[in-house]
Amino acid sequence: MENNNRRLTIALSKGRLQDETLALFARAGIIVDPAELNSRKLLVNSNAGHYSIVFVKPPDVPTYVEYGVADAGVCGRDVLLESEADVHEPLDLKIGHCQIAVAGKGEVVGDDYNLLATVRVATKYPRIATTYFHAKGVPIEVVALSGSVELAPLLGLSDRIVDLVETGRTLKENGLEVIDVISESTARLIVNRASFHLKRVEVSALIAKLSRVI
Questions:
Q1: Helices within 67-199 (DSSP H only)
Q2: Which of 65, 62, 66, 43 is nearest to 54 (CA)?
Q3: Which of 33-37, 61-65, 164-168, 173-177 has the lowest mean pLDDT?
Q4: Rg for the chain (alpha carbons), in Å?
Q5: Going by fewer Cβ within 10 Å, which terminus of the chain is more open, N or C?
Q6: Cα–Cα distance between 87 and 141 in angstroms, integer?
Q7: Domains, the chain, ranges and CATH?
Q8: Is-contact 163 150, C-beta < 8 A?
Q9: Is 18 helix (H, G, I), strand (E, B) or coil?
Q10: What is the spatial distance between Cα 89 and Cα 66, in angstroms, rounded to a whole number?
């Protein structure tokens, strides 16, 4: 009989990274039944029976892993930088490549910041944005948004945005341009610190399987 205490629970990001992550896992021999994927289940098992897969919103992945609800997880580096979660990050999965960037209207690209003025920045990444601008000595007012960040400069809600940029097409179509790249971002495998030690054999096996197909 299988010892469920040795099974790993893995939190995967729903949305942008989900398909690429599942394809990578499949190449590593961790396959989820398509019938379960097409259901409304948020917790499914892999065909090997060694893994339970839970699908959550991207910002929640580090939380599930940090608190040990999941032994491991997959999320973008952007999410890790924003959350500052206390987790192990043993593997760059080399998928989901994009950039965390500062953008604004084309006519302001190249303008120096007026250090006496507060720059209003719309973003889904308030911690990353604040850290970036404060490092430059620029005071900012953060406007926290959960979607359609590109609208903010067009409607006068913000001077700049900090957002995830994949192809740049959405920015271009809305008259915006990248001003600066804060960081590159790819999907990372993260592991709960306790699980890393208590389930070392299982975690090491997962890392080895994924490493072989990256």
A1: 77-83, 126-135, 151-154, 169-173, 193-198
A2: 43
A3: 33-37
A4: 20
A5: N
A6: 30
A7: 4-96+186-213 (3.40.190.10), 98-184 (3.40.190.10)
A8: yes
A9: helix
A10: 11
41 CB-contact burial (10 Å; exposed 0-12 / middle 13-18 / buried 19+): middle
How far is the C-alpha of 8 from the C-alpha of 2, rounded, in Å? 12
Angle at 71 between CA 70 and CA 76, to 5 degrees: 75
- Neighbour count for residue 202 (Cβ, 10 Å): 17
Tallying the residues shown for the chain, one arrives at: 214
Write down the mean pLDDT value for the chain. 90
Contact between 98 and 182 under an 8 Å Cβ cutoff? The reply is no
* E strand spans, the chain: 8-13, 43-45, 51-56, 72-76, 88-92, 98-105, 119-123, 140-144, 160-165, 176-185, 187-191
Percent of the chain with pLDDT over 90: 75
- Tell me the C-alpha distance between 157 and 144, whole Å: 11
